[in-house]
Automatic annotation (TrEMBL):
It holds the Pfam family PT. Residues 1-26 have a biased composition (Low complexity). Belongs to the N(4)/N(6)-methyltransferase family. It catalyses: a 2'-deoxyadenosine in DNA + S-adenosyl-L-methionine = an N(6)-methyl-2'-deoxyadenosine in DNA + S-adenosyl-L-homocysteine + H(+). It comes from the Bacteria. InterPro entries: DNA_methylase_N4/N6, DNA_methylase_N6_adenine_CS, N4/N6-MTase_EcoPI_Mod-like, PT, SAM-dependent_MTases_sf. Residues 1-32, 286-305 are annotated as: Disordered. It is an enzyme of class 2 (transferase). GO terms for molecular function: DNA binding; N-methyltransferase activity; site-specific DNA-methyltransferase (adenine-specific) activity. Its EC number is 2.1.1.72. PROSITE patterns: N6_MTASE. It comes from Moraxella cuniculi DSM 21768. This is site-specific DNA-methyltransferase (adenine-specific). The lineage of its organism: Bacteria, Pseudomonadati, Pseudomonadota, Gammaproteobacteria, Moraxellales. Residues 286-299 have a biased composition (Basic and acidic residues).
Length: 629
């Protein structure tokens, strides 16, 4: 049996390790994310088979082949203490999974929205198989590393886990609650700690994006420069879209030498060759400059000049229009159009002769682009300011319960610029879930059908905080309550629309299988036990089904129906069967007649070995995908 090891390797390396893993990556018996670089290596092998020796990348061959293109030791890039460990954190598989919580959800059986209560590194790893290449837009608002922030410390080694359960840093399901450490500016690793936290998360986010996908990251000057360089490394400098400046304050504080009035929103896409930002809708203000002074039947228009600053003296002419008005370009200016074109415009009624003898071309509102190009300066009167965002949140949940949330106006701008009406949108530093609120609101406004996935750690609220006093034990509780209340409000305001304001809640939990969570201290005893029953004693069937669903690469929104001893899953119009309990040969025959795309059967569901061999043969004969575990 292939047993994944969860020991971090002792060999420091500046690069991701590229030894292919011995684990069968297509088997459900592997941990999540056990082969993050596997797909990349496969692609590399397709282009450069000669640099592989058996299954491993041969660096010497690569150097020989690409000699002059290999960077010297003095090379451009961002380096920091612990970078190689951050790459190891990226590759380290997770032995955790997600368990459904219908009681905390809204419309669990029908909604396409997801809320995951978990550390985001674990969640992103667990989602890799099901959501790789499926997320159109990611927005994140990570801790800015102001010097007062508590930065999450990733450490998932087993020995530490026991310690953390004992000290209350983890709950008994292995959920990390308090592994935050204050990252003050006088800490020698101030930037490094933050970068170590961000690197693996951004890599995993990159894999989740569709080919035309995009990520927006809010940040301020504390880490803007570091974040831009980190994203250059993860997404490729050529995929930088813009550093949008959000003018988030309308006042200047008089108590310091400089008053910061903006934040950055750094935007990178997966592939700049195919990604384009959407246009912004035209505003009433922009349309106001279009009037209809002469009752033109083509509607409102705005005057544009028919002369320009540059041109050739040879092209200067005088023209007399049929209405007797003569025109020549003013001194120092040149005609923008030829005489013939101007005459044509005259006959179309597209010229306006003003009182001062000037002539303008009419630009009709009906003919301009329906949208406008987005600039990089975002003013608070278009996208809201921090003060207003606090008010917006307070109106729904209460004052002082969550500090400095972003606002729905800002998020609607970002979502509108980057998604289409059916896109899936992910925020894995969800905080108070402004992104979910904005997705639902925008869907209500433009009849969209976007879905959201929120990830938020159940970070404990301080006992003295307003949040705690209001009954919110952790931040995930605040986020879920906001979605519930905002969803109900949006629904009530749009009674005629069929809006999805529900969400399915999932929580991080340890694997339901002993096999995938072996503890090295009693490996032999557990391995023997595992042959008899691979499941943990308290494992709930529906949790096992969701764990298998994720390992099969299916979405968390797949529908699940239990019928005749079989869990039938339906995802993207394909059906899948999961069998956890004993079935007869006839029952297996019934599954075969339904031709599922894949059938997964627990070993213990076979009456005996000969039934197992028969069933395997029958699925093979029927050319159906089958796995027993
Ligand atoms: C700046 S807030 C996001 C605010 C959010 N944009 C809003 O409008 O409410 C960052 C959030 O990320 C959460 N967070 C920090 N580290 C995390 C981690 N490792 N996994 C999941 N959430 C995390 C924090 O609990 C915090 O609520």
């Amino acid at each position: 049996m292939n047993q994944p090891t969860n020991q971090p390797t002792n060999q420091p390396t500046n690069q991701p390790t590229n030894q292919p893993t011995n684990q069968p990556t297509n088997s459900l018996k592997t941990a999540h994310n056990s082969d993050f670089f596997g797909e990349k290596l496969t692609k590399l092998r397709q282009i450069l088979p000669e640099i592989f020796s058996e299954h491993a990348l041969d660096l010497d061959k690569l150097k020989t082949l690409l000699g002059e293109h290999i960077a010297s030791n003095e090379r451009y890039g961002l380096n920091w203490a612990g970078k190689s460990a951050a790459y190891q954190a990226l590759q380290r598989p997770t032995y955790n999974t997600l368990a459904p919580c219908p009681d905390e959800s809204v419309d669990f059986d029908t909604t396409q929205n997801i809320f995951i209560e978990s550390d985001n590194l674990e969640a992103l790893k667990i989602l890799q198989k099901s959501y790789a290449g499926k997320i159109k837009m990611i927005y994140i608002d990570p801790p800015y590393n102001t010097g007062n922030d508590f930065i999450y410390h990733d450490d998932f080694s087993q020995s530490k886990k026991d310690y953390e359960i004992a000290t209350g840093d983890r709950d008994i399901n292995g959920q990390l609650l308090k592994s935050f450490k204050k990252n003050s500016k006088d800490n020698g690793h101030y930037h490094s700690n933050w970068l170590n936290m961000m690197l693996p998360r951004l890599h995993l986010a990159h894999t989740l994006l569709t080919d035309d996908g995009v990520i927006f990251i809010s940040i301020d000057d504390n880490e803007q420069a570091q974040l831009k360089l980190l994203c250059d490394e993860v997404f490729g400098g050529e995929n930088f879209v813009a550093d949008f400046i959000w003018n988030n304050k309308y006042t200047v504080s008089n108590d310091t030498d400089v008053s910061y009035q903006h934040e950055h929103i750094i935007c990178f896409c997966k592939n700049r060759d195919i990604f384009e930002l959407n246009l912004l809708p035209r505003t009433e203000k922009q349309n106001k400059s279009y009037k209809n002074k002469d009752n033109d039947p083509k509607g409102a228009w705005k005057p544009t000049s028919i002369h320009a600053r540059s041109g050739s003296a040879n092209n200067i002419y005088e023209i007399e229009f049929p209405n007797g008005i003569k025109w020549t370009a003013p001194v120092g200016r040149y005609p923008r159009y030829s005489k013939d074109t101007l005459m044509e415009l005259y006959h179309q009624g597209a010229l306006y002769f003003n009182k001062n003898g000037g002539v303008d071309r009419k630009t009709y509102l009906s003919e301009v682009r329906q949208g406008v190009t987005c600039g990089t300066l975002w003013n608070y009167d278009e996208v809201g300011h921090s003060h207003g965002n606090n008010e917006e949140f307070s109106e729904i949940i209460g004052k002082g319960i969550f500090n400095d949330p972003k606002g729905t106006k800002l998020l609607k701008r970002i979502i509108g610029l980057s998604s289409n009406k059916n896109s899936t949108i992910l925020d894995f530093f969800a905080g108070s879930a402004t992104t979910a609120h904005a997705v639902m609101q925008l869907n209500a406004e433009d009849n969209g059908n976007r879905q959201f996935i929120m990830v938020q750690l159940p970070e404990l609220t301080d006992e003295k905080s307003e949040a705690h006093k209001a009954g919110f034990a952790n931040i995930a509780e605040i986020a879920k309550e906001r979605i519930r209340r905002a969803g109900a409000k949006i629904k009530a305001e749009n009674p005629d629309k069929n809006l999805d304001t529900g969400f399915k809640v999932f929580k991080l939990t340890g694997s339901n299988f002993k096999t995938w969570q072996i503890d090295d201290d009693n490996a032999i005893a557990e391995q023997l036990e595992m042959y008899i029953n691979p499941l943990k004693d308290n494992a709930k069937e529906i949790d096992i089904v969701y764990e298998l669903l994720l390992k099969m690469g299916l979405k968390l929104t797949a529908t699940i129906e239990f019928k005749d001893g079989v869990y039938w899953l339906n995802c993207e119009n394909k059906s899948y069967a999961i069998v956890l309990n004993t079935l007869s040969q006839d029952d297996f025959n019934a599954i075969i007649t339904k031709k599922p795309s894949k059938t997964v059967v627990l070993d213990k569901a076979f009456l005996n070995d000969s039934e197992k061999s028969n069933v395997i043969l029958q699925f093979k004969d029927a050319n159906l995908n089958f796995e027993s575990i």
